[in-house]
Amino acid sequence: MSEYFDKVWGSEDIVLYAKDLRVYFSLARSLTEIITFKKARNVRAVDGVDLYLPRNKVTCLVGESGCGKTTLGRTIIGLIKPTTGRIFYKPSKSLGELMESAGLPRKGDYFDITDARGEIYKLLRRELQIVFQDPYGSLNPRMTIKEILEEPLIIHKIGESESERVEMVIKALQDVKLTPPEEFLHLYPFQLSGGQRQRVNIARALILGARIVVADEPVSMLDVSIRAEILKLMLDLKETRDLTYLFITHDLAVASIICDYINIMYLGKIVESGPTDEVIRNPKHPYTQALLIAVPAPDPKGRWHIKEVPIKGEVPSAINIPPGCRFHPRCPYAFDKCTMQEPPYFEVGYKHHSQCWLHEIKK
Amino acid sequence: MPLLEVKGLKTYFFTLRGVVKAVDEVSFTLERGESLAIVGESGSGKSTLGYSLIRLVPPPGRIVEGEILLDGTDITKLPEDRIRREIRWKRISMVFQGALNALNPVKRVGDQIADAILAHENVTKKEALERAGELLKAVGIDPRRINNYPHEFSGGMKQRVVIAMALALNPDIVIADEPTTALDVVVQAQILNLLKKLKQERKMSIILITHDLSLVAELADKVAIMYAGKMVEIGPSDDIYTEPSHPYTKGLMASIPRIGGKKELYWIPGNPPDLRSPPPGCRFHPRCPYAMDICKVKEPPYFKVGNLLTACWLYEGKSKEGG
Q1: According to a count of CB atoms within 10 Å of the terminal CB, is the N or C end of chain A lower?
Q2: Rounded CA separation B99/B139 (Å)
């Protein structure tokens, strides 16, 4: 294991990684299907993914809707149980000792948290957190900001008294720059703007001392003029609190600005991954290339021009994933092999991998 | 005479908690075959402006003042039945926001498009369905699919159906309210291409309502920037993108994330105001880095700055007052 890390990741300290992760959701069978003994069909939301999260870095998952990026994000931190595959985590020292004594399977510094349960699972929740996409739906409208932020403290039995907890809440509000914090304590979510609500969401994710934060499209529902402010806050917190982010987005432009590493997802697979600048400047997978062409450019000069995107149609359903390379029905370069055999990952640059048979030919 | 001329339009919502001035004294013109983008953040009044143009402002909102001149006729004064017969859909149609849910799920798409035709023209059902097929073809869908139900289409295709429906009566103006928000980038690019083609081939005027300035650059000849119910700047898109004048437009332009651009994050501090009690003077002054004393008390008129009309006191004296 460590050899692979050294070779691919060099100086990066991987805090969490997943191997061959699969998440299938089975569909209910119709009456005719039950009578004819048809097998239940699966939605293969995540279908064989390896993912590495380098410490204190922003790793992006970029993909179109339905590609499984949200499912993958939630699985990584244990909110969804994977169908197969393992997740390994290098915990904080204190949690590591507890995991050690609980007898969790381990590989070097890493513990296998896939089947973590009970007390260990609860303690993991403190270190692995999530910021949800919808700042309007993810805060309970009938709780005040103080109650929202105090709740995780109560659940995890942190703080001796209410006044001690309120102090922690105030500190958390200051950290996300909701100042003066006292004024926000007794407000309800509807009294806050979208940006302020997303700050509360971030504060809630961090109040228990998170080390890894999955940010699921945290700014896509915010106005353009304030998005960057939330992103900057998240990046600042990353520095001051040594956080590691898995940033989920459909917006390549945002990803190109804030991420250190990019993973391009298509129908449950990561088809291309690598350092952001590498992937953006030198995309190798035909899908990544098409995405980059499709992104509208904020320059009116080309507006007369009909911009042909080289790929056709839309993402097929994750119930019937095409055989061979799953991208082949839409790929402009597809040839025979693509329709039959799934391509492996080819190393196409430093830390840069792409899953496409074209690279074999070039070799 | 321009195809559409909006003069001093005010659309207010009379809610129990006060009057919301969603559209406050907005004026602009639109020529035949021209595309105008109305850009603003949520709550800036851009959708309400769109609804005002086809006289579909939902209650408790209504147009309280101003004129909407279509070929010189003020449609704010026309009675509802004439609007329905002569204007709405026939002259001005709309692709609604959230178009994915705009189709009736229990009706074949062909019938839904034919309905729009039958309501306005004296044709048989068969002819109407034939035309529905042609419209589907025009938006890149196999005409045989008129017999399919909405759930048999993907998101991008539903969006095309809704656009086909907006074209049913060959209107002069199509208003597209966030036509691609729920769509993925690849499909978004396809829809944009479709709108570009329709504009070029049919000489159709398009009013694009959106918050996405990248999208606007792909389609619009002219851009109007809305802030808190006011149109703060309007002009040709080349000028808006290269030399924006209004501090708000400048801020918006700087906050667009660009692929391969600088890796700096820029934003406009503060939040848009509550439209029930907008700040006095210029509504942008609490967030404006250049705010002066006059901005806090007196609303700025439009000044002509190059090819742009800009509602900002910074340009007082430097250029002549415009319309």
Answers
A1: C
A2: 15
Determine the Cα–Cα distance for residues B160 and B191; give it in Å rounded to an integer.
7
Angle, helices A224-241 vs B247-254, to 10°: value is 50
- The answer to whether the CB of A276 falls within 8 A of the CB of A243 is no
What tens digit of pLDDT does each residue of B210-242 get?
A: 988 888 998 899 999 999 999 999 999 999 999
For residue A6, the model assigns a pLDDT of 61
Question: Chain B contacts of A290, Cβ < 8 Å?
Answer: 186
Smallest CA-to-CA distance from B313 within B322, B323, B298 is with B298
Instruction: Tell me the three state secondary structure of residue A128.
Output: strand
Residues of chain B positioned with their CB less than 8 A from the CB of A308: 193
Kindly give the pairing relationship between strand A261-266 and strand A269-275.
Answer: antiparallel
Residue B55, pLDDT score:
93
Calculate helix-pair angle for A145-155, A194-206, nearest 10 degrees.
20
DSSP three-state, residue B181:
coil
Cα(B163)–Cα(A360) distance, rounded to whole angstroms? 43
Q: What is the pLDDT of residues A261-308, one digit of tens each?
A: 999 999 999 999 999 999 999 999 999 999 998 888 888 887 777 777
What DSSP line would sit under B44-80, residue for residue? SSHHHHHHHHTT-PPTTEEEEEEEEEETTEETTSS-H
Top-tier CATH class for B4-91+171-246: alpha beta
Q: What mean pLDDT, rounded, does chain B reach?
A: 89
CA distance B289 to A198: 24
User: Which residues on B lie below 8 Å from A301 (Cβ)?
Assistant: 238
**Amino acid code (one letter) for A204:** R
* Closest listed residue to residue B186, CA positions, set A219, A338, A307, A333: A307
pLDDT single digits (tens) A93-116: 999 999 999 888 988 889 999 998
Nearest to B186 among A194, A231, A290 (CB): A290
Q: How far is CA A217 from CA A60, A230, B320, in A?
A: 10, 12, 45
Tell me: cis bond preceding A329? Omega within 30 of 0 counts. no
Of A257, A258, A294, the CB nearest to B186: A294
Cα–Cα distance measured from residue A186 to residue A305, given in angstroms and rounded to the nearest whole number: 53
Which of A126, A49, A51, A130 lies closest to A91 in space, CA to CA? A126
How far apart are the C-alpha atoms of B238 and A298, rounded to whole Å? 11
- Most B CBs within 10 A among A133, A177, A223, hence the mutation to make, goes to A223
CB contacts of A250 in chain B (<8 Å) are 184-185
Chain A residues with CB inside 8 Å of B185's CB? 64, 250, 252, 291, 294-296
> For testing the chain A interface, which of B218, B219, B284 should be mutated: the one with the most A CBs within 10 Å?
B218
Domains and CATH numbers, chain A: 2-142+188-362 (3.40.50.300)
Nearest by CB to residue B266, choosing from A228, A251, A295, is: A228
Which residue has 């993108």 as its token pair? B241
User: Which residues 6+ apart lie within 8 Å of B213 measured at CB?
Assistant: A224, A298, B39, B252, B253, B256
Cβ burial of A10 (10 Å; 0-12, 13-18, 19+) is exposed
What's the rounded Cα separation, in Å, for the pair B298 and B321? 15
| Integer Cα distance of B95 and B85 in angstroms | 19
